[in-house]
Amino acid sequence: MDYFFLTISLVKIVALLAVVLGMMNYTVYAERRISALIQDRLGPNRVGPAGLFQPIADAAKFLLKEDFTPGHVNKFYYWLAPCLAMIPAITTLAVVPFGSTLFGVPMVIADINVGVLFVFAIASLGVYGIVIAGWSSNSKYPFLGGVRSTSQMISYELSLGLAVIPVFLLIGQLRLSEVVRYQIEHGWMIAPFVGDWANPHKWLLAIPMMISFVVFTIAIFAETNRLPFDLPEAETELVGGYHTEYGSMKFGLFFLGEYVAMITGSAIIVTLFLGGWHFPSIPDGSHGWGWGLVNIFIFFSKVAVLLFVFIWVRWTLPRFRYDQLMRLGWVFFFEIALANIFLAAIILAYFPQ
Amino acid sequence: MSALLFWIFALIMLGFGAAVVINRNPIASALSLVMCFMGLSSLFMSLDAFFIGIIQVLVYAGAVMVLFLFIIMLLDLRVETRRKTNVVAVGGGAVVALAFFIQIFFVIGQLSAAKQPFPPLSSPKVDDVHSVGLLLFSNYNLPFQIIGVLVLVATIGVIVLSKRELR
Amino acid sequence: MAITVSRPKLNWSERLYLPAIAAGMAITIKHFKNMLFGRTKVTMQYPEEKWDSHMPEHYRGAPALVRDDTGRVRCVACQLCEFICPPRAIKIIPGEIPAGDRFAKVEKFPHEFDIDMIRCIYCGLCEEVCPEQAIYLRKDYAITGFTRADMVHNKEKLLEIGGVMHGVVLKWNEKK
Question: Which of A110, A169, C34, C81 is geometrically suited to a Cys-Cys bond with C39, CB 3.0 to 4.6 A?
Fold first, then answer.
């Protein structure tokens, strides 16, 4: 274990955390502004120019509020839950390649060979935060939120896992940097314009990829508890859902954890289907550190576009009823994802390049 | 470094494994089991068996234990926390466990293979995901299919039973 | 009696749910776009933009006492407004006008005239009931203060808000 590797990894972790946490704060701001604009309002525009310092004010407010622990809760788990909500979301980012190379160093914290499985494994731990919050609050609405969250996350994890299988059938590798490399050579998964784009085989393959993309994105919506699927915290039914009993920064951690999960989910969608840090006719980091930075910028721009879609969907669609949610997950997406695997396998086996 | 990590993760695993048994609160037990699985998966990963390690987390910690937790949460668990310790049963269990441990210790001590260190593994040509896949779909294809059918039968059986219950 | 609501039969594309989603998304993005490029304007940015110029003629703001052209406080402390005021916001302590004064025949003047603006409901009954055209509801609406005492408008404050009212009947000026 040489010190160069350790130092570089540490620098990458700190830099990525800084970027992602900053992005998280500004996603909250963007959510508030965009939702306001969609509803013909203005949103927060007073703190700083165009309200840009609003996240700082919000953070200060969260930190200065009384850190209240209700008397009827299970103290240890009550305090543990917000951390468990936040940590898995951040940890997942470790395997996502967020840039090409910078000074010859690959811009990914841990390029392990089971990348996407790691993502699913850690994402599946995210449910503990919510479940423990719901249970330790020792109160009805949080408990219902926790129970709903458990069943929802387990149901949609299936579609999530099955939806990406076509991608890996095609690539034959679970490493996320390989996915990006494949997309650089053969074009993005859902839009293979790069390379020999007139090749009909690639467009044939884009059909199952498109289905995968849609199912995966919807499953990510469900996994991050975003609006058409935000039953664990449905305000109209469950007061606040699993975080009803939380206040001050402990609530803040749940709240921000959702946004980090959104960023992580978007980052994974970008990596799997939208070409990662690649953009046609922009060279990678081996042509100078400037291009390396541009690659990182492209990656986060794509993430930002997806975050906009997340917000846009949230302020458009009404919430599903619980039976509709389960029906959708088990009857439609599960079957679509399964059929899609067969479709991709048939195309790969019987329509060679 | 690697030895240090081994001891850390082994201690985490053993500590939380003991906590599963000792804890009165079933939720705490279940969560300790999750931590135990995490330690186990870390041990797998320190052996470069990433696939097994990740599957350990994904299947056991991420899915099975969540379902366990789900079930425990739906049951009334205060009864369990109030129950008094039965000294005879605990003592008997400890004696059995100790006897079992001593037995295994001596048996392994007797084995000649246990005395010499393992020969280093030849560095694999393909990564562990591929080798697991290759083995599953070549050498063990038939058992794999049979297990698949078995699980399917179990699933359908559960559905049939629960539907009948409803009527 | 139970009423059976007939559910509409959905056709294939309606049941697919996706066209409806697309239509909804199109509507929200249209609103977003129009707001972003300033084509929709609904919100008034309060401290910078004020409502003052759009205020309707009949707007009822803060009640205030007025002087006439000669600078006389028109109130004669008859206390009708104090009695009519639904939330009892007005408190008047009348004083007697000394005999030598030009307006001695008016007899009373308001020694103190307080309106508690926390209680005032801007109903305008005081203005309506006043026989002397002495109290009017002006267009001031931003009435603020740091303490409860700040929110009580005394006579000076009321006259300051009211100012001079032109073109009112000056019945006390003539000798009778």
Answer: C34
